[in-house]
């Protein structure tokens, strides 16, 4: 938040939004005006209070825009609601149901609970009310409560309410932790003060007393469950401001526990109780203020209780909070970096509180593996290989507070020992480390021993990700490796990456460590097999740790990252040869993924060009493993079996070339070998039948069809021939690769792939690849690979058969795909904000293939895109030989290998320019149609 905003803050309070006494007088005036007409009175009261609330919220919004004070805004909105509730209670008890001779039972207190009880509300927050009775409900109390609730509901408010006696509150608080928390937060708004004081007194004595450990454990367990639902990482790029890790609910949980255990009423009291230092209290309030500002802006902008900071809202919030663009970082990325730093601070405060609870023995102690162990006293013992540290209850601690000042290298050794011995980190040591960050200076960075220790941490076979993450959270990692410090909490404003850059890098190290430990062989068997054969695993770890370290700079991050590696690796103790390998891996870290997902791997030119980049089998192995770790660390669901298969195919084909395997000159022998392999599989065919079938395929088919798939194709075509079918489809699932195959046999024509793509788009199926073959007798044999939608084969096959049936119907002219796809596209785009703008790019080149012209189209992904592109290509009178579809979040990269109608490459420069122009025009026209109306 800018300093200009901070200077604008002025003492504005809720009383300026609405005066409860004045509002009560206005409602009384309405009562007098509509005496005798209860319905008219209720409508007039609802309208007046609704207008008051709307005007007050608008003023609060304007003040928030001016001063950026999030906590103050939440308190103002809560005070505004107090005024409404107080006036409404006065109206109900004075104008509607006055008490002439009130009995002892005709008492009522209106109490705010939940977030409202804390005195903080967002514009769309629920209004949580407790109507407190002395012992049982009376007719008068029931009438008052009913009158208030009906008005609040008619105002459009979401009201959470309960009507209970003091005894019921106490009894239910014992049995239900949610109710106990609500009562803990209770705040009297209006009504009988003695009744509320009785509840408070009895709650403290009968519920809180002696149950602190139970409450703390329950709230921390509840937090873990909530974070499991919302996303366990605090570095998700579309975080939930309220429920996500590091969000407002975490701050609430901290205060609930502290309030319960320490018996405080205000967060400021935590300093006097020794829970927080004055600086930590300031940090708590700073985090709370920022998060409330974000949440209030979210509700004001969307007009609803929206707590998810989605991509389409992030830029608007960034502008509202006053963030501006800097070189290499957009305004939205600067805002989100601040958000994630705040979320990290909230995590630090959680750790501080948990340690304070442990000191009071109100919470069990954790181990590094995060399993809780029973508290047990033991004599501290000296950590192995160091006299500076001691082990207390399986956690590494400092021997005294001067350890790091005497020898700053111990700041790095602390983490190395913890990782090597599998020890958790003692909170006292972590707190001391955060106070000693200035010791991580140029001298320590150049210290050979410190760098050797860091390299041990990074390449450890025992949980390097956990130790590096703790180094990052304390700030040591970013100071020791300043280039890493620049990307801490940095988000990438796209839908592909699920985490901040630093979190992505740490997760990538975790994936590599799994491969190194031979774990998860089911998902990447070849990587597990290759890892032990590497001559230099250290270079691979360093390269992976640094591969995105140059993100956020106004230049290609791969080239800038390689330059950083050449400067940093010698400092870490790597040899010139290792440094060269690390720099090369960083510079090429995207190459294998791009080639595998968007090039024709059956085209020899693709493999030979990639082999020229890689140059050696050792580098190929390292790049292959790095690519897998990089993709898997992007986020849940990004890695799948299909990508694994593409990478393995590229690896094996390239390895064959690099080790002196077959070349283009072996083409004829390879075709014959493929035919012989298929013949051996078709043991029930006669030689004449096989020879006739073999003549139906051109040479390229034999070079790229896998033996198993070639056998499936042969039997599929034979069944179609036997049934006299000119049009046939077949479906099959592949659980390992996570795809479903649709095979289509039909008379060949240029629009065939477009029809297939349209049928898939109409069914909502995501095409991942397309293998297209033409037979010598004028048929097309196309295999389309779509992403699975169902885990069970039976459900997935049923879906695939429906798609295959729609393909057949469209090819027979029974349905009009254009209308269906257009309708579905409009429906999908309706109301969908366009958070991202990707200017379309079209490349037409003959350099990527010896037999085909290659069209590469990069644009914003949207439903029906492949259908639009294949339709446009068919109108250009081009034959599509193969299509390769890759999606990186919101960015689509579709590559088509094409020829003209005679089977030749597009050699004319003028024709290439025309193709490029017409495809660009088609994309721009679709962009305009898809754009939401302003």
TrEMBL record:
Domain ACT stretches: 741-818, 854-933
Region (Uridylyltransferase): 1-384
Keyword entries, A-Z: Hydrolase, Magnesium, Multifunctional enzyme, Nucleotidyltransferase, Repeat, Transferase
PROSITE patterns the UniProt entry points to: ACT, HD
Catalytic reactions of this protein: [protein-PII]-L-tyrosine + UTP = [protein-PII]-uridylyl-L-tyrosine + diphosphate; [protein-PII]-uridylyl-L-tyrosine + H2O = [protein-PII]-L-tyrosine + UMP + H(+)
EC number, UniProt record: 2.7.7.59, 3.1.4.-
Official protein name in the record: Bifunctional uridylyltransferase/uridylyl-removing enzyme
Gene: glnD
